[in-house]
Amino acid sequence: MLAVLKNPSYARLFSAQVIALIGTGLLTVALGLLAFNIAGGNAGIVLGTALMIKMVAYVAVSPVMAALTASLPRKHVLIAADIVRALVAVGLPFVTETWHIYVLIFVLQAASATFTPTFQAVIPEILPAERDYTCALSLSRLAYDLEAVLSPMLAAALLTVIPFNDLFIGTVVGFVGSGLLVALTTFPPMAASDAAPFVDRLTRGVRVFVRSAELRALLAINVVVAACGSFVIVNTVVLVQSYLSRPEQDVAVLLAAYGLGSMVVALLLPRALGAVSDRPVMLAGSALLALTTLAVAATLSASPAELSWTRLLILWAILGATTSAVLTPSARLLRRGSTESNRPAVFAAQFALSHACFLVTYPLAGNLGARIGLSSTAAILGGIAVVAAVIAIVVWRPAATAPAGPSPGRGRRSTAAIGESSESRAAHPA
Predict the structure, then answer these.
(1) What is the pLDDT of residues 381-424, one digit of tens each?
(2) Beta-strand (E) ranges in 130-264?
(3) pLDDT of 308-362, one tens digit each?
(4) CA distance 258 to 379
(5) Closest CA to 266 of 305, 209, 323
(6) Closest Cα partner for 292 from 313, 316, 309?
(7) CATH class, range 192-402
(8) Is 374:238 a contact under the CB 8 Å cutoff?
(9) Residue 69 gets which letter from DSSP?
C-alpha cells in the first residue's frame, strides 16, 4: 500500500491531506472550547448550529464552486481554498459573539467544500493505475480514522502547556502547510475546458449520476451510510454517559472500536479488491451495515444493567468495518463513471449529495434519540438503511457496470473503459 508514496506528486498531496486533517482536528477541539467560553451552557446549541451550517455549506457550495472553477487550474483552486481556510482560522480566536462563529464557520466550510472534491478529482489523474488508486483510497481512509483518534490526544497534550486559543495556530499551520505542499506538486495537464453555460456546468455531475446505474446505486448507499453513521456520531456519547452512566473515557473507547474496525478493513481492501469487484464488496457492506444497526437496536432494548459492554464494542467495530467497506471503494465508481473533463463535477456532486443525506439524518438521530429512546431510534435508522440497501441491490445489477469511452484529450484508456470483468483480476489498469 505504501508503494504509492513513491510517486512524488501523490506523496506531496497525501502529506498535504494529513497536515490539513491534523489542523482540522485541532480546530474541532478549539471550536468546542471557544463555544463554551462564549456561550457557556448553550455551547451544545452553538456547536449543533455550526454542524448544521457545515452541512449546508457542503451541500450548497460544492456544486456551485465546481461549476465556477471548472476552467481554472486545479492547483490554483486548491491553494486559494487553503489560503481562505487559514485566514478564517486566524480570525476565530478573536470572535466575541456566537454569530461571528457561524459566519466564519460557513466561510471555512465553503472553502473546504471547494478544496475536498477538487483534491479528490486530481488523485485519479496522478495515479492512473487502478491498483495504485485503490491503495491511495485506503491510505486516505486510514488518515481520516487516525486523525479522529490522534488529534484529540494531541490537543489534550497541547492544552497542558498552552491556552485553547493557541490551538488555532496549529490549524493555521496545517492549512498553510497544505497549501505549500500543493504548490510544490506537479499536476497532470488539464483537459481543455468547454464553454458550456453555467447551469450546464452546475448540473453536470448530477446528470452523470442519473445516467449511471452504478452511481444511482451509490446514492442509495449514501443513505445507508448516513442513517447508520449518524446514530454512531450523534448518540455514542448519549449511550455511554447517559444510558449506561459510564465515564467519559469510555466514549473514546467505543469510538476507538469503531475507528479500529474501519482501519482494519481499509488495510485489507486493496488486496480484496484485486480478487473481487466493487459491487459485491459495497453491496454486502451496505447490507451488513444496515443489519448491524438493527442489531444495535435489539441490543439496546435490554436494560442498562443487562447490556454487555463487550458486545457493544464488537458491534461498533463491525459498524466501522462495514462503513469503511462501503466508503473506501466508492471513489472508484466515481472515477469509472466520469471522464477527465467532468470528473471534478462528479466528485462535487457526490460530496454534496452524500452530505445532503447527513443533513437529514443528523437531526433525525438527535431528535428521535431524545424523544423515543436509543433502541427505537436505532431501529428506525436501521430500517431506513435496510430499504436503501435493497434499492442499491436492485438498481446495481451485475450488468450495470458498463464500460464507457476513453476520457477526452488522453491517449490512454480511462478507468471507465475497463469493465467490471477486469476488476476480478489482480491487475487494475486505468
Answers:
(1) 999 999 999 999 999 988 655 443 333 333 333 333 223 332 33
(2) none
(3) 999 999 999 999 999 999 998 988 998 888 887 788 889 888 989 999 999 899 8
(4) 19
(5) 323
(6) 316
(7) mainly alpha
(8) yes
(9) T
Amino acid at 429: P
Query: Fold for domain 8-190?
Result: Growth Hormone; Chain: A; (1.20.1250)
The whole model's pTM is what?
Answer: 0.78
Annotated domain spans of the chain = 8-190, 192-402
Q: Can you read off the three cell numbers belonging to residue 242?
A: 447517559
Whole-Å CA distances, 426 to 4, 274, 282, 333, 401: 17, 5, 18, 18, 18
**Cα–Cα distance between 336 and 347 in angstroms, integer?**
12
Find all residues with CB under 8 Å of 265, minimum gap 6, and list them. Answer: 320, 321, 322, 324, 325, 328
Q: What grid cell was written down for 326?
A: 462501503
Measured CA to CA, the distance from residue 199 to residue 194 in angstroms comes to 13
Q: Is 192-402 the same fold as 8-190?
A: yes
Taken in order 242, 244, 245, 250, the sign of the CA dihedral is negative
In the DSSP assignment, the letter for residue 413 is P
